[in-house]
Design a protein that fits this description.
The chain has one domain: Purple Acid Phosphatase, chain A, domain 2 (4-Layer Sandwich), CATH 3.60.21.10. Helix content is 21%, strand content 34%. It has four helices and eleven strands; from the N terminus they run βαβαβαβββαβββββ.
């Protein structure tokens, strides 16, 4: 199973559209978003995944102000959790959160195959069999490039993709 991973989209609609095109081309079956969507109107763009992607799993970031409206606009497309989202996909246990410090604790605990976080806008990949991963920033803000990732949960290989 392939999944798309992104974080820190920060309302950058053009990059969200590019990310969706990458995920469709790579035939991902689900998306993980590690927070900082920012405004609820981004779901007008994210709705484009509905024909080919089953679900988006997300956590709120520190810049997600109107959590109620974000949840309402996401509808059935996205399942939000406040701080930590534990997901089982492709036979793997995945933990998603926004903050690195919390992610590092989950990773050290060793209960998850993949721990995903955002917030820093910097790509990070640690581990061999169990992975700690930050896809960087889809928006490209505070980073040298805008990035997303595609993870193959069978092989546990993650490809970082520049937008």
């Amino acid at each position: 199973m392939k999944i798309g991973i992104l974080s820190d989209t920060h309302d950058r609609l053009e990059n969200i559209s590019k990310a969706i095109a990458v995920f469709q081309e790579q035939q991902v079956e689900a998306l993980i978003h590690a927070g900082d969507f920012c405004s609820p109107f981004v779901f007008r763009i994210f709705e484009k995944i509905k024909p080919w992607c089953s679900k988006m799993y997300a956590v709120f970031g520190n810049n997600d102000g109107d959590k109620l409206l974000l949840t309402q606009k996401a509808g059935s497309l996205c399942i939000f959790k406040e701080i930590v989202h534990e997901v089982a996909l492709g036979g793997r246990k995945i933990a998603v959160m926004h903050y690195q410090e919390l992610a590092e604790r989950f990773y050290r605990e060793g209960s998850f195959d993949l721990v995903v976080f955002g917030h820093t806008h910097k790509h990070l990949l640690e581990g061999d069999e169990k992975l700690l991963f930050n896809p960087g920033s889809c928006s490209g803000y505070l980073a040298d490039r805008a990035t997303v990732a595609v993870a193959d949960l069978t092989s546990m290989r993650i490809e970082l993709i520049s937008l």
